[in-house]
Amino acid sequence: MNVRRHIRTTVTAGALALGLAAVSACSLTDGGDGREGGKLKVTASFYPMTFLAERVGGDHVTVSTLTKPGVEPHDLELKPRQTAELGESGYILYLKGIQPTVDKAIEQSGVEHTTDAATLTRAEPGPGPTPAGTARPISPAKPISPAKPAKPAQGGASGQDDHRADHSDHGDHGDHGDGHEDHGDGHGSHDGHEETPATEKSPAVEKSPAAEKTPAAEDRQEGQDSHDSHDGHDHGSGGGDPHLWLDPAKYADMARGVGEALAEADPANADDFRRNAATLAGELARLDTDFREGLSSTGTRTFITTHAAFGHLAGRYGLIQEGISGLSPDAEPSPARIKQLQTIAEEDKVTTVFFETLASDRTAKTVASDAGLRTAVLDPLEGITDKSPGSDYLEVMRANLAALQKALGAK
């Protein structure tokens, strides 16, 4: 349990109540109709939602962000004024599960038009990471269409029990060679794996007793068990990875969904919202193509990262994410997990330990030094600062692609 976050949640409860008490008074002033200067007032919870709101809303909206640049979104503490201003919004865009305090404030804001972006796409493909932070690969998805939206999410990410079964089957990596084509004993060949479409749930794989008897499997299970309590914040339904925006296909679904939601909130500008959404979805489709082609042939499919935020990206492009400390960005790894990662790095020919711009690189450097690896930035795009490897979502994602290509030995 993350005690620090529980303390912050308790402290901010008072601020939340105070802020909500001021909503009615504030709503009587400028902006009480959800508009400002003739434009729809939009409040976004943190950067990925802000980018969507600004790009889809265009000149017809004014966008304010609850999470300021440089602030770790999971640690956001709402000020009373921010809570009060929520009630003045004409539209609120957020992602449920990332910021529980924000979720509660939105529920109590009384704003008619709100969108949980997680409902605009599906949580698949790929199982959500276990608390140990491992995201196992699936077959790369087919190219996305910039014009056809995905169906709404059905029950969130796959549960941890399903993933644990999948993880156990992969306990002994064996000899992966250059591209995981031959997994050695107990694995068979990837060539025999059935393609999993982006809109279908990956089935759980039955445990392999033979694999569980290997030292590598025992090390991985020990590391996983020791991390069962490290995930300190709510990840939404199913307990899976909430970082949906790091999959360009899912983000394109969100863009189209936001276009429809804004059209309902401001019908006079509906055509422009839908047009802007289609334009952004097209750009994301091209980004998806760049990732698929750029990562289609690599020396390894495994990468290690301090914050296991890349499960959806890994699932989309058939990669293996090994998180040092799971989904919580400030959790510390156990000695068993460190030992496990050293084994994985050697077996899977891992070259790099990734860290993010909004968190300390101390753990990454320690793990990398012990295993003889280098470090680099892989940005989960939870916020944009002057340290970010780009000025917006698209630029940072292309920087992420370049970093992955280098680390994985793209050919």
TrEMBL record:
Which UniProt keywords are present, listed alphabetically? Signal, Transport
> Where in the sequence is the signal peptide annotated?
1-24
Report if keyword Lipid biosynthesis is assigned: no
**Quick one: where's region Disordered?**
111-247
Ribonucleoprotein found in the keyword field: no
List where Basic and acidic residues composition bias occurs: 160-198, 215-236
The protein's superkingdom reads: Bacteria
Low complexity bias: start-end ranges: 121-155
> Which InterPro entries does the entry link to?
Bact_metal-bind_prot9, ZnuA-like
* Family membership: Belongs to the bacterial solute-binding protein 9 family.
Q: What is this protein called?
A: Metal ABC transporter substrate-binding protein
Q: Which organism is it from?
A: Streptomyces yaizuensis
Lineage, highest ranks first = Bacteria, Bacillati, Actinomycetota, Actinomycetes, Kitasatosporales
